[in-house]
Amino acid sequence: MKFQTLISLVSSLKTHPIKKTIDARMFEFQKFQKASSPEIFNELCFCLLTANFSAQGGIKIQNAIGDGFSQLSEKALAKKLAELGHRFPNMRAKFIYEARQHKDSIKETMNYHDDDLQRREWLVKNIKGLGMKESSHFLRNIGFSDVAIIDFHIVDILAEHELIDKPKNKSLSSKTYLEIENILRELAEKTQTSLGELDLYLWFNETGTVLK
Question: What's the pTM value of the predicted model, to 2 decimals?
């Protein structure tokens, strides 16, 4: 019954005018399948920025820096991030600078793997600063929608519907992340949405916004 309540919530949102916005956003993500590796790298940098930071702030910084993610020195990038208000300018500049080794090959690497779980595993192992959530976020934003973006908004709504016990630590272990993802996967199947699309509906329900 508790699960059915959440199914009903998502189903009702799919008849809400927000569906048009979410469909358009998912189409934008799918278009990234045709993007170049440097363009995809730019989106990876956005996801590196959003860890322990806001999506709105990450979008603002991404728009302001653009190709600077690939071109600025680590020191200059850190200075720019600080000027733009990032909470952790030095560490994020270091992560972005180190990730540049994959700038020209990230598209090929993502397409090489057979499924999104393998893609996420590669990202977590090879891109310092990308955990399970940020890797899932990156994959969704470049058109791979079969992994869940589990942030505190998603945890809160599942806890409110008594589908999980609210974790004491905001930093989820891989085991806990996968357990919660399996619940979301079942919800996605029952509401005929992808995990990436489901995230946008649940995010809208919690925040009243649709970002990326």
Answer: 0.95
